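[stage:ingest] chain + small molecule (manganese (II) ion)
[stage:ingest] validated
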Amino acid sequence: MDARTQNHRLTRRGMLQAGSAALAGVAALTVAEAQDDGVPRSTDHHLTNESVRGPENPPLAQENPNSVWAPDTDNGTVPPFKYSFALAHKRIDTGGWTRQVTARELPIAKTLAGVEMRLTAGGVRELHWHLPAEWALMLYGNARITAVDQQGRSFVDDVAEGDLWLFPAGIPHSIQGLGPDGCQFLLVFNDGDFDEFETFLITDWMTHTPKEVLAKNFKVPAATFDNVSKRAPYIFQTGLPGDLKAEQNQAGQGTGGVPQTLAFRTSQMKPNKVTAGGEVKIIDSTNFPVTPISTAMVKLKPGGLRELHWHPNADEWQYYMSGKGRMTVFAAGTRARTMDVQAGDVGYVLQSNPHYIENTGDTDLVFLEMFDSPHYEDVSLAEWMAHTPHQLVDQHLHVGTAMIDAIPKTEVVIDPA
Ligand code: MN
Ligand code: MN
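[stage:predict] done
[stage:export] tokens:
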């Protein structure tokens, strides 16, 4: 307990022992905690200098208690590091919808951008490609995905909830929802400025190429292309695909399949770490060789803590899948900010900025940590302290060497261990 907390507890006890409601009322109006910075604050925010007299947004405030009343360890200017998919424009088409959170929505997020997409059964995300690589996680349902590599080798496979896929940069591909109810998935691109609405679409390209050139290219009459839609279908409704084996055989004629699979089944993977507080699965190029993007899939039980740590090799792009929590990012130079997060939010932490994530709800907090690096890396505060001479650490912190001696020698990752 620090001096501030002690002082506060004594004050509250004093008020309770006063025995008179009137007296306690007077005390509540005048007594504040002693503060290091000399600014009076109260834990129930009843002081005049804490009062609000203008417009308020109660539902938003309720979701963001750490923004309304930040911990007094927060300080200085730290740009916002979360944005909710719930605020993103949803583009609706005949075969589903999509929305994106990019550096335009969340300016700090320069290295990665995210897209959510829903496809109906039979709904197709049009054949296309783009500059960055595409990492994906199936959130619901089933899809058939296709791609062709630089040597004409094909990839056709079906993916289900929990499966990942990776389309390398510049490689053409498609996604189609399967029965009974299509699918919904998250896409992550290793370019914060990526724009899902500006990809290279097969129909868009063909309708912007002279028909006589198309005719020459394919050795057919120009009229063959009269029915190519001038409005790119983008996400369109059509019939379900054929038999998987038959489609794989057809697509692989002459060239065969890609040498390394572009899909990864997370359900068949054991967690890298399981503790009393939760678990983590790490998927990077060591177990999914084609990926230039690495991932930690984290589940924190109620009260669980993703321990204090940082990532020395890349910025962290986060996607919250369920539950609620909070994160404090320390930005050096006395600056720190705490923001609340919940399902549907994107969070972002700059390279080497330390942070923690705490489950503040009563259900599991499930989220992704994503990095524009083929290798996952982190350093935890606890492992740093455990593997530095303990006397030296204690000369900085004055916590007693017994506390430092007791830190586990291997990284805990998720507390409680
Ligand atoms: Mn794509
Ligand atoms: Mn992290």
